[in-house]
Amino acid sequence: MNIPTQAPGAARSALKRADGTAVRVLVVDDEATLTDLLQMALRYEGWEIRTAADGREALTIARDFRPDAIVLDIMLPDLDGLQVLNRLRTSGSDVPVLFLTAKDSLDDRIAGLTAGGDDYVTKPFSLEEVVARLRGLIRRSTLLAADESGPDIVVGDLVLNEDSHEVTRDGEPIELTATEFELLRFLMRNPRRVLSKAQILDRVWSYDFGGRASVVEIYISYLRKKIDAGREPMIHTVRGAGYMLKIPTVGS
């Protein structure tokens, strides 16, 4: 396959997750040579990479790894890429997906995007193109922050300024108490990640309430009334696990 072997050019400003950790990307393709090349190029960006050679393995890794983006080949030995994507979306995942395909017909491209894919590249492709498209998808997801980002934490239309302690949603100011602000900041620094009550107690209150996890429920309720009232909800309860902040699905 005609895939360039050189690494991308000069390193750009590194993208990181909102909590400061490395971006996570899952690469799914049954061609080991191609997977190795993509892994090399993406690690050059400073990202954490996992790989899978078939659809079922990809679904297992995606569940545990919780990637920020997936590079997904359409032609796989078991489930095809469209089936993998359908199962991801059915499970509630809105992770950005970049399809790889040897097919260049308009129908195939439309099928991938209609199924919920975010972008595609056709083989053969350059590593630079894949990296550039991934960076675009990750930036548009608004779930990550660049190194040079200022005091604003942004998740969808929700903005929190760490310096001024101002919070807005869709441009409308939201007044929060100091504790509500700290709770929201913790949620926004960990978008799409389930946070347990114990984690929230430790991070927001900095000491053990001796089992009084109900204080978390109370403050989550306060936040919902201010953040989600009259809008598509962003704060979600994951039964038996904790709470998660995520961008509402368009059209939900």
Descriptive report:
With 252 residues, the chain is an alpha/beta fold. The chain has helices at 32-44, 55-65, 81-90, 106-114, 127-140, 178-188, 197-205, 214-227, and strands at 15-17, 24-28, 48-52, 69-73, 97-101, 119-122, 144-146, 152-155, 158-161, 167-169, 172-174, 235-238, 242-245. It has a 5-stranded parallel sheet with strand order 3-2-4-5-6, sandwiched between helices. Strands 8-9-10-11 form a 4-stranded antiparallel sheet, covered by helices on one side. α2 runs parallel beside α3 (81-90) and α6 crosses α7.
How far apart are the first and last residues' alpha carbons, in Å? 41 Å
Q: What shape does the CA trace take?
A: elongated
List unreliable stretches of 5+ residues.
Answer: 1-11
Count of helical segments? 8
What profile does the largest beta sheet have? 5 strands, parallel
What's the helical proportion of residues? 25-40%
| Average residue-wise pLDDT | 81
Record the strand order, biggest sheet. 3-2-4-5-6
What is the multimeric organization of the chains shown? single chain
Please state roughly what percent of the residues sit in beta strands, choosing from under 5%, 5-15%, 15-25%, 25-35%, 35-45% or over 45%.
Answer: 15-25%
